[in-house]
Design brief:
alpha/beta; 7-stranded mixed β-sheet; 1-acylglycerol-3-phosphate O-acyltransferase activity; 51% helix; Lysophospholipid acyltransferase family protein; transmembrane; transferase
């Protein structure tokens, strides 16, 4: 009976996962084709329009996460959420185990900025969202640093996944140095966020239909704020050296945090 119930639950989650993927795609198209075009007509001020677009994206993602939770596709918990919501003028640095990490974080950060891959501009389901939110594009190297500095100075929170792509299962985490360079050269503090998923779901090697035997549970641990002045003093250090040191520190914090969450969740599963 338990085996039958487990099989039926897995089939249900497979069907609901397909439904959620379809919902996400249709929702992205509707936002892009209807709501964001309507914003262009009713709000001429670019800054206000961008703020409304980001809040709309966050609200849509909250709805999407609630649908996934209610249908049993997954569940999640965010620790120290108030610290994340209250951040201003700061880099938020997170590891990237699954395809929906950005969705989870943006759903609780109403006006977050984000550094995204240029390849996503060719995706019809998310390109309109990226343009309406005016996210930073990682291929625009000549203007990226100056744009990051302007946005951080005006109080934007910039979300970056410094691995550059989803974590490869079984391989050591490796961070690109872009986030550390932005932090050093813009004089910005960083908030470390560790994301752990209890099952293999939507990772680098998984397809949407690779539904795990058990319902996945995401733990998002909002950790300490890293003071940039602990790593960089312009009178004593070269920015490149400070960025390397900061990058090693971030990698250590993310790796140790992930190991800690993995241990906690493994112990919970055995108890």
């Amino acid at each position: 009976m338990n085996a039958l119930a487990s099989t039926m639950n897995r089939v249900w989650r497979l069907v609901m996962t397909g439904f959620c993927f379809a919902l996400f795609g249709v929702g992205g198209l509707l936002l892009s084709l209807v709501w964001f075009n309507l914003l262009l007509m009713i709000q001429r001020d670019r800054a206000k329009r961008r703020r409304l677009a980001r809040r709309s994206i966050s609200a849509s993602f909250r709805f999407f996460m609630n649908v996934m939770r209610l249908t049993g596709v997954l569940d999640y918990r965010i620790d120290n959420l108030d610290a994340l919501r209250s951040e201003r003028g700061c880099l938020v640095i997170a590891n990237h185990p699954t395809l929906i990490d950005y969705v989870i974080l943006a759903s609780v950060m109403p006006e977050t900025d984000c550094l995204v891959k240029s390849a996503l501009l060719r995706n019809p389901f998310v390109s309109g969202v990226i343009r309406a939110a005016d996210y930073l594009i990682n291929s625009e190297a000549d203007t990226l640093l100056a744009a990051s500095q302007r946005r951080l100075a005006q109080g934007d929170t910039l979300l970056i996944f410094p691995e550059g792509t989803r974590t490869r299962i079984g391989e050591a985490m490796t961070l690109q140095r872009g986030a550390a360079n932005i932090a050093v050269r813009c004089g910005s503090d960083l908030r470390v966020v560790v994301i752990h998923c209890s099952e293999h779901l939507l990772d680098k090697k998984s397809r949407w239909y690779d539904v795990p035997p058990r319902k996945p549970f995401f733990t998002v641990d909002v950790r300490e704020r890293v003071n940039i002045h602990d790593f960089y003093d312009a009178t004593e250090q070269e920015p490149a050296l400070a960025a390397r040191q900061l990058n090693r520190h971030l990698q250590h914090r993310l790796t140790s945090g992930l190991q800690s969450l993995s241990g906690i969740n493994d112990a919970s599963a055995l108890s």
